[in-house]
What does this fold into?
Amino acid sequence: GQNIDQPTEMTATEGAIVQINCTYQTSGFNGLFWYQQHAGEAPTFLSYNVLDGLEEKGRFSSFLSRSKGYSYLLLKELQMKDSASYLCAVYEDTGFQKLVFGTGTRLLVSP
Amino acid sequence: SAVISQKPSRDICQRGTSLTIQCQVDSQVTMMFWYRQQPGQSLTLIATANQGSEATYESGFVIDKFPISRPNLTFSTLTVSNMSPEDSSIYLCSVEGAGVGYEQYFGPGTRLTVT
It folds into this structure.
């Protein structure tokens, strides 16, 4: 089975840095994704990690440690538009491939 | 990335009725996925639909309740049958990208309210 956990909610101020953690226990691990979802909209792809280490993409970075079953999404220079839900998702391949989503973290950025 | 459209965007239905949601992709894709997102919750996979084969359902979801069609490589439908208020949710379809990361692209979703 799968178990993917994230904090339910986080708050931060504009211009700050926030780290959203994700822990997972799953079989057939084949990569970890982060998605952003604004209220009332579809999720949009942010990042993908399959090897250990940090992937940087502009203001957003994502880190993965496969041995620890741990990932984080780092958002720098926060902007008001970053207020959204952030979904961690594990790509499982146990002979049948599928994406399993974590509980999601609602981030509120205040002025 | 793929462009995905869904119809209807929203609907209000009476309990006991059925609703068919359509998902159209602008390119041919092998795998299409149907998710449910209940209010304030994350996404739960309902089933995976490959063209030319029966859909594969996740635990807790059955074909009688959520029949799926996949007639070609650009289109799929999900029917929510014999609806109850507990089926009120957003239903999203998604497809896998062509890149090495297998990222999924999502349609805009169908917001269903059952009264």
Observations:
- The mean pLDDT of chain A is 93.
